[in-house]
Fold:
Amino acid sequence: MHALAVVILTGLLLSVQTVLGPKMAVLGARPDWLLVFVVFIGLYAAAPRAVIVGWFVGLCADLMSIERLGVMSLSYGLVTLVLVVVRGYLFRHSVLTQAGVTFLLCLLLWAAWYTYASLLYTFRGAISHVLLVALYTAALAPLVHGVLLRAGPLIGVPRPRRGPLGFQPGYTDV
Structure:
């Protein structure tokens, strides 16, 4: 992975999440662009670097939030770790896999954040909001994954090999 590309993409996605996020809100739910990037990295990047990049993206999100340092870096790091462990059992290039994995991990991550906030503060969030964020993020994930896969060589993620019937089943990353 190219460190400069990861830093630029993280900064770009943080900007999109903070500037365009409120304008893209549907019923108060905003897509989690950083989670989509972390899922992409977890699915396609080499194993040790993927976890480091997930943690770095979370650290940058921590620095942009008013929450305690380490909450988001631990969260995004764990998301990439889970994906690195299970990605061998997934059809990574399927749109349904990209959307489904993003939905499931977003649902779990946001539910954990809501639980954390309700235990630490007097916070009462709605589970429907968590579900709406997960659906919205999952719907946008295949589009972002497609763009990032096309830019794979610039990011340092190997481009998948294609055969006559699509992606080769024996595709492995470097």
Notes: The helical segments are 3-20, 33-44, 47-64, 71-86, 95-120, 127-150, 152-155. The longest helix spans residues 95-120. The chain has a mean pLDDT of 86. The first strand starts at residue 162 and ends at 163.
